[in-house]
Write a structure and sequence with these properties.
It is a single chain. The protein is α+β, with helices and mostly antiparallel strands and 813 residues long. Helices cover 50% and strands 13% of the residues. Strand 9 and strand 10 form a beta hairpin. The N and C termini lie far apart (171 Å).
C-alpha cells in the first residue's frame, strides 16, 4: 500500500526546506513475516500464518522520517537527546549565573533592603546600563541604516550584465529586509541590547512556512544550547534550539504535515524557560500562568545513523557514517515531532547545512563571547556598593538616631520630626542634653566619593563611553590629530564593530541562499524581466552580499573626520583628483557623512563633456582646454582637420597645442579602429542573435579578443598611412626662413660669447698661477730673513756668554 502525506510548501520554524522537488521520492520497504493477527475493517481479527507482504511508503527527500519509524525507536531517540540536553544545560550553570548577575546590574528594578537599616538604599549604579545603551544606540544605527543594510560586491572582471545583476540583488534584499521582514528591525534592535550584557547572541535564518517567506530571527543566548568544550557552531556535534511556540502554531504545522499528526498536544505548557528568563520576567514584572498555551520544543541539529536510512556505499552496504538530521522534540511530553534530513539531496558529501550565526561582543575564552558583565561587572558591583554607602550615610546624617533617658517623655515619639517642628519633651533632670544622646553618624565620605569617580571612569574608558573632547580643541586642530585622539579612545569599540560586521556578512550570505531557493519572481517590475527564472539566475552566487556598514568606521564623527580629510586633500590639488568631478565627489561624500538627504538639490553634479566639432576642438587646443573623442563621431574627418591645423605656423609655434592635438588624434584613431573591427565581426553574426540581448552579451565576451586583434591591425595601417602622408616636406615659408636666420645669428653670437668666456677663464687661471708663485717667493724671502735674524741673535748671545766667562776667570785669578 502507499501512504501519501502533504508535507507543505515550506519548512518548520527554524528549518529551511531541504528540497521542494515533489519527484524526490524514497521507497521504504517493511517486511511482515510469519504468524500474526490480521485486523479486519469490521473490528474482527484473524489469527494464523500470513504470507510475506511488502509495504511501500512514498516519502519525499525532505519528508518527516518520524512518520515511518517505530514509536519505540523514536522514544529512545527522544530520551537520549533530552538527557544530553540536560547535561549541556548543567555544564553552563555558572555561565547562566553570570548572565543573571548582568541582568541585575542593569538596575531596572529597585531592591528593597532592610540592612543595615530598614529602608536603606537599594539603588544600582547605572554604569553597566549606560554602557549597554550607548553601545546599542551606536551599533543599531551603523548596522541598519535607513537605505538598507545590504550592499553587493563583485570580484574579478565587471561586465555590464554582472553589474545589473548585482544591483537587482542589492535592491531586492534591502526591499525584503526593510519592507517585508517586519521582525528584522525590532529583533536586531533587541539583539544589540542583549549582546553587550552577556557577550553572545545568535541569529537564525530560514524559510518560515507560516509566513511563507524568509526570516532572520533573534535567538537568545540561553535558548541555544551546545555541549561542553565546543569552540564554534560549525564544529559542534550537537546544536539545540529551545523554541517557545504557541500550541495553535504547533497544531498548524501538524495539519500541514510538517509535524507528526498522531501526537496529542498538552492542554497547557510547563514553564521550562530557565533561570535567566525567570530573572528577565522578574525585572519586567510578568510571570507565566499555569494554563499557558506556550509549548517548549527542542530543535536539535546533529548527526545520526538511523536504521532504514543508513548511508550506503557503491556496493549497497551501510557505511556506518552518521548523517546530518534535525530532530524536533516536544519537551512537555518527550515525543518526537519530526526528523528531517539536514543536507542537500544532490550533495554527495552530505555536508550539514547551517542556520545559525553567532554574534560576539568580545572573543571570549571558549564558545560564548565575553560581555560587559564579565569585563566591568566587578566595577559596576563596587560602584553600586559605594553609591549605596554614600546615600545611606547621607540619610543617617540628615535623620540621626540615638539614645534617650528612660524617664524622658517625648510627644509623638514614634513619628519623625518634620522641618520647622518643635515638640514638647519632659525631662526628669531638667537638662535636655543629658537626656538625649545622638549616635555619631558621619557625613558621606569624600574619599568614597573620589573612589566612586575613579571606578566609574575606569569602566567608561573600557566601554569607550568617555566623552571625546574634539570640539574643545578648536577648528585649527589638524584632522590627523583629531583622528588620532578618536582612535585612541575608541579602540575597543572599533574591534567590536568589526566582529559585528563579519557576523552580519555571514547572516546575509545565509539569507541570500534562502532567497535563491524561492520560485517566486521579483515582487516589482524590473524592466521587461519579471519571471522567476530571472531571480533564480541573479542569486547564483556570482554576487557577494556584504553589509553596508564599514568595518573601519563605527560612528558619525569618524565618518565626518575622514570625509573632511579627503575634501582637504582634493582641494589642495584638484588636478590630480579628476578636476571638477573629483571635487564634486569629495563634497558629496562630506554631505553623506553629515547625513544630508537631498544632496542632489544642494550639490548639482558637474556637466558631463559633450561631443564638439573638429573646429571647436582646434580652438580648444589653442586655449588649453582638454580634448576628448567620443564614439560615433566621424573620426577620419576629425583626424584630417587636426593634421591640417598642426601644419600652420600659429600652431607650430605652440608646443602645448601640438602635444594636445597629437594625443587627441591618437584617441580618434583608437575609437575608429574599434568601431571598424566591431562592424566587421557583427557582419558575420545572424540578425536574430543580434536582437537577443542576453546572447549578445555572452557572445561579446567571447569575440572581444578578435575585435582587439582586428583593431590593432587597423591602428597599425592607419598610423603608417599618416606617417607616409607627412613625409613630403611642406613649402618653405618666408617667415620660417627669417626665423631660421635669426636663430643662426643668435647661435653665432652665443658661440662668440662662449669663446670670450673661455679666454677670460684661461687668463684668470694664468693670473692665479702667477699670483701663487709671487706669494710663494715672498714667503721664502721672509723665511730666509727670519733665519738670518735668528742666527745673528744666537751669535750675540754666544758672544755675551764668552765675555761673561772671561770676566769670571779674571776675577778668580
Amino acid at each position: 500500500m502507499a501512504v501519501e502525506r502533504d508535507m507543505g510548501a515550506g519548512g518548520m520554524p527554524g528549518i529551511l526546506p531541504l528540497d521542494e522537488n515533489p519527484e524526490a521520492i524514497v521507497e521504504i520497504e517493511e517486511m511482515q513475516i510469519g504468524p500474526g493477527i490480521l485486523e479486519m475493517e469490521d473490528g474482527s481479527a484473524i489469527v494464523g500464518e500470513f504470507e510475506e507482504e511488502t509495504v511501500t511508503i512514498d516519502l519525499p527527500f525532505d519528508g518527516n522520517l518520524a512518520d515511518t519509524m517505530d514509536s519505540g525507536e523514536l522514544g529512545t531517540i527522544a530520551s537520549d537527546l533530552i538527557g544530553s540536553i540536560d547535561d549541556d544545560l548543567s555544564s553552563r550553570k555558572d555561565w547562566e549565573d553570570t548572565y543573571k548577575k548582568g541582568i541585575e546590574f542593569l538596575g531596572m528594578k529597585n531592591e528593597k533592603r532592610s540592612e543595615p537599616f530598614e529602608g536603606s538604599s537599594g539603588i544600582v549604579h547605572p554604569l553597566l546600563a549606560e554602557s549597554v545603551t550607548q553601545f546599542q544606540s551606536q551599533a543599531y544605527r551603523e548596522l541598519l541604516p535607513a537605505q538598507g543594510p545590504v550592499r553587493v560586491q563583485v570580484f574579478g572582471e565587471e561586465t555590464e550584465a554582472l553589474i545589473k545583476q548585482a544591483e537587482r540583488v542589492q535592491e531586492y534584499m534591502n526591499y525584503m529586509i526593510t519592507c517585508k521582514m517586519e521582525e528584522y528591525d525590532p529583533e536586531l534592535d533587541q539583539m544589540l541590547f542583549y549582546l553587550p550584557i552577556i557577550g553572545s547572541t545568535f541569529k537564525k535564518i530560514y524559510f518560515n512556512p507560516l509566513k511563507n517567506r524568509a526570516v532572520s530571527d533573534f535567538v537568545h543566548a540561553e535558548d541555544l544550547i551546545v555541549p561542553y568544550g565546543v569552540s564554534d557552531l560549525a564544529s559542534s556535534p550537537r546544536v539545540t534550539h529551545r523554541i517557545s511556540m504557541n500550541s495553535n502554531e504547533v497544531r498548524k504545522l501538524q495539519l500541514a504535515g510538517f509535524y507528526s499528526d498522531d501526537i496529542d498536544l498538552p492542554s497547557s505548557g510547563t514553564d521550562d524557560s530557565g533561570e535567566v528568563q525567570e530573572s528577565i520576567n522578574d525585572i519586567q514584572g510578568v510571570h507565566p500562568t499555569n494554563n499557558s498555551e506556550e509549548l517548549t520544543l527542542y530543535e536539535v541539529h546533529l548527526n545520526l545513523d538511523l536504521e532504514g536510512f543508513e548511508d550506503i556505499d557503491e556496493m549497497g552496504e551501510p557505511t556506518g557514517l552518521q548523517l546530518p538530521y534535525i530532530v524536533t522534540i516536544l519537551e512537555d511530553t518527550s515525543e518526537v515531532l519530526s526528523i528531517r534530513r539536514n543536507y542537500e539531496e544532490q550533495d554527495t558529501m552530505k555536508k550539514q547545512k547551517h542556520f545559525f550565526v553567532h554574534y560576539k561582543f568580545l572573543p571570549g575564552l571558549g564558545f560564548y563571547g565575553l560581555g560587559l558583565t564579565h569585563m566591568i561587572g566587578g566595577l559596576a558591583q563596587a560602584s553600586t556598593s559605594i553609591l549605596r554607602q554614600l546615600i545611606d550615610a547621607g540619610t543617617l546624617a540628615n535623620l540621626p538616631a540615638g539614645f534617650k533617658a528612660r524617664g524622658a517623655r517625648i510627644k509623638n515619639d514614634d513619628e519623625p520630626l518634620q522641618p520647622g517642628e518643635f515638640r514638647d519633651i519632659d525631662v526628669v533632670s531638667g537638662d535636655l542634653r543629658g537626656a538625649l544622646m545622638p549616635l555619631p553618624f558621619k557625613e558621606p565620605s569624600g574619599t568614597l566619593y573620589n573612589l566612586l569617580g575613579n571606578l566609574v571612569d575606569a569602566g567608561r574608558r573600557f566601554a569607550s563611553m568617555a566623552d571625546l573632547k574634539v570640539g574643545e580643541m578648536g577648528g585649527d586642530t589638524p584632522v590627523g590629530t583629531t583622528m588620532a585622539i578618536m582612535e585612541r579612545g575608541t579602540k575597543v569599540m572599533s574591534a567590536i564593530h568589526k566582529r559585528l560586521h563579519y557576523s552580519q556578512k555571514l547572516e546575509f550570505k545565509l539569507l541570500a541562499q534562502v532567497f535563491s531557493k524561492s520560485v517566486e519572481p521579483y515582487p516589482y517590475i524590473i524592466s521587461n524581466e519579471v519571471g522567476p527564472e530571472v531571480k533564480a539566475q541573479d542569486f547564483d552566487g556570482r554576487v557577494d552580499v556584504i553589509p553596508t556598514s564599514d568595518p573601519n568606521i563605527f560612528s558619525m564623527s569618524q565618518r565626518i573626520a575622514l570625509a573632511q580629510t579627503q575634501l582637504q586633500l582634493v582641494q589642495s590639488n584638484p588636478e590630480i583628483h579628476g578636476g571638477p568631478q573629483g571635487l564634486y565627489q569629495a563634497y558629496r561624500k562630506m554631505y553623506e557623512a553629515l547625513g544630508v538627504s537631498n544632496i542632489d538639490a544642494l550639490l548639482p553634479a558637474p556637466p558631463q563633456p559633450q561631443p564638439v566639432n573638429a573646429a571647436k576642438e582646434n580652438q580648444n587646443s589653442l586655449l588649453g582646454v582638454p580634448l576628448q573623442a567620443f564614439p560615433g563621431q566621424d573620426h577620419q574627418a576629425h583626424i584630417e582637420t587636426h593634421l591640417a591645423i598642426m601644419s600652420t605656423p600659429a600652431v607650430e609655434m605652440n608646443p602645448n597645442a601640438i602635444m594636445a592635438l597629437q594625443g587627441h588624434v591618437q584617441e580618434h584613431i583608437g575609437l575608429m579602429s574599434e568601431e571598424q573591427a566591431q562592424q566587421q565581426i557583427m557582419q558575420g553574426i545572424p540578425p536574430e542573435v543580434q536582437q537577443d540581448q542576453q546572447q549578445m552579451q555572452a557572445m561579446m565576451q567571447q569575440i572581444q579578443p578578435q575585435i582587439d586583434k582586428i583593431a590593432a591591425q587597423i591602428i597599425a595601417d592607419t598610423v603608417e598611412q599618416l606617417s607616409q602622408s607627412m613625409e613630403t616636406p611642406p613649402e618653405t615659408d618666408p617667415l620660417v626662413e627669417i626665423r631660421n636666420k635669426e636663430l643662426e645669428i643668435k647661435a653665432a653670437d652665443l658661440q662668440r660669447k662662449d669663446s670670450e668666456f673661455v679666454a677670460r677663464q684661461e687668463f684668470d687661471r694664468e693670473k692665479e698661477i702667477n699670483d701663487n708663485m709671487i706669494d710663494q717667493q715672498r714667503v721664502a724671502v721672509s723665511q730666509e730673513a727670519l733665519r738670518d735674524k735668528t742666527r745673528i741673535a744666537e751669535d750675540r748671545i754666544q758672544t755675551q756668554r764668552d765675555i761673561a766667562s772671561l770676566n769670571a776667570r779674571q776675577k778668580a785669578n
